[in-house]
Amino acid sequence: MKIVAAISTLFLSFMMTGCGEETKSTVWWSDHIEQAKEKDRECKKSGDDTDNCRNAREAVFRYDQAHAPLPKFGKDFEKEVLEGVEKMKKGQPLE
Q: Which terms are listed as keywords in the entry (predicted)?
């Protein structure tokens, strides 16, 4: 009888864990970025850390990195860099 109860408990636990949503890959979430952003917001709000939450978060991170604005530097910075390059070409030490 104990064996039947143990097997039943084990079977039910497997059945309950299989009832969740289908796990989607990071590539899938990357191809559906708006859905990934929505899923990421849901996961942050609920505190979930499922495979889908992690994959959506990774897809959003990669998207944000790929679409990050390039930094803008002032003319003085560009001038200093160009002067430094010229000094390096001539073998002069940088200050």
A: Plasmid
